[in-house]
Amino acid sequence: MTGFSLRGTIMHTPERGTCDVVERALVEVGADGAITRVLKPDDAEYETALEEARTAGRLTELSGNQYLLPGLIDLHIHAPQWPQLGKSLHLPLYDWLQNCTFPLEAKYADTAFADRVYGSLVSSLLANGTTTAVYFATAHLEATQRLADHCIEKGQRGFVGKVVMDDPEQCPDYYRDASAAQALDETVAFIEYVRGLDGNGSELVRPIVTPRFIPSCSDDALSGLGAIAHDHKCHVQTHCSESDWEHSFVLDRHGKTDTQSLADFGLITRHTVLAHSNFISDPDMDLIGNVGAGIAHCPLSNFYFSNAVFPLRAALNKGLHVGLGTDISGGHSASMLHACRYAVAASRALEDGVDAALAAETRGRANARIDFMEAFWLATAGGAQALDLKVGRFAPGYRFDAMLVDAGVEDSSLLVWDDLDTAEDVFQKIVYTAERNNIRKVWVDGIIRLDKTA
Hints:
Number of domains: 2
Strand content: 15-25%
Number of helices: 15
Number of strands: 17
Mean pLDDT: 97
CATH architecture of the largest domain: Alpha-Beta Barrel
CATH superfamily of the largest domain: Metal-dependent hydrolases
Shape: globular
CATH topology of the largest domain: TIM Barrel
CATH class of the largest domain: Alpha Beta
Helix content: 25-40%
Structural class: alpha/beta
């Protein structure tokens, strides 16, 4: 790959609570896929750099209807559940898992089936602007290897984990690890497989240690996974205090919170992503924040299965690292822009309350809401912070993971009125109204991975 430059309107949220919109910005990307310079029209070097790029034939100019935004980061995806997206969400969680989800995940013993699904999933997420995806796979080693293969082949930045679920009291006979020892051995084998993949020298795809959650794992498996994460310097992902049931189950089993239990097993580190975390206490938040672990806030699926709204504002006020997740297929949308919208809606529901029978002043939690800028930050720079990655914003030294949004496509729900909308207005409209058809081009690590303009 050779370096290139792009000129046009860029939009990003480098800091939480602020948006940065620059018209006619010049973004220079080096041959290694990292951003080298971001110049504004009034910068002293701007005209010289623009002319050099144009003369060298490495300048691409965006049209007036096109906008460059950072790629989106999805911190929580159940990859094998892709075929049931939008199905069975009327069921209680136990029935949904036992009657729908576990039978589906068991099918991934067939690697041909895994190829069919995972190829579709990775392509679809890239088309929605998701440049970084954090994936739960299944308990099957070979099928999980195929998910990593598809991320490499299609060029998506991915964290892929072989799910560990070995407790026979909580996992069905037809779908679980045969033993803690086997689960641990296969976790190490998967780590070695990913790190040895051809074309993965830049660690575009990384292994991630993945206990499904405490209720599905034996203590031997949990302690072993903590040791593996430490010894192999791996990220960790799991569910934490998602619902009343899970939170209470761990309290009954271990006599301590989900967060504290995971920490005692060595599973909460600077590189841990805790999905949901709706029922974490203030001491839990302090533990998570002190370690620097991240939380994947999944606002849509929380409405269906978690019995509560995550206290997002409280977590942000404590300085916790928080990003967003679609939680496919507990959430019925694969779009991280939708996740932004649901995050705003959930925060307002928490602040305002939902029971009209209660007095307004007692109905909700004060000062809980977020706005579109914070939501987009969560989906980009916030998610990157949780993963400890240099992506999610346009700045020198950051990887060029980006998407081109076009308001001029046919049948666009993103409507821009030149005489009414400022550039900042357009940014807000993109977060609230842009859809998959508006995303025309996607780059990961400086390479075009999707191009609908060709």
